[in-house]
Amino acid sequence: MSTETELKLALAPDAIRALRRHPLVTGAEKLGNAQTLINTYFDTPELALNKARIAVRTRKQGNTWLQTIKCAANSAGGLSSRPEWEHPFSGEFDFSHVDAPAVRKRLDALAGEIQPLFTTTF
Question: Which residue among 31, 83, 114, 118 is least packed, with the fewest CB closer than 10 Å?
Fold first, then answer.
């Protein structure tokens, strides 16, 4: 298990425009290569995973497919953190790497009902 930590910022539209024009942003060197990510999110028809605050996603990153399980986040001081399990995806869900007993039990119980809800590409 790993922990995903996010910092989310909220800015007024004028502040966003000013930030984009700031010399530190406009002069920043772009590093790395752009990569297309294809994400499919799953749940049951009754949204049982969402109600349990569990997210199930598959992602194609290059030639690799990954399965990701995320749980409810805890937030403090602008930071949000939550447990996350990422594992290679072979076309069938495998929850054996989820080491939180209550989460794994819920996933195993709902496995037969899980279906794709929507896909994003960015």
Answer: 31
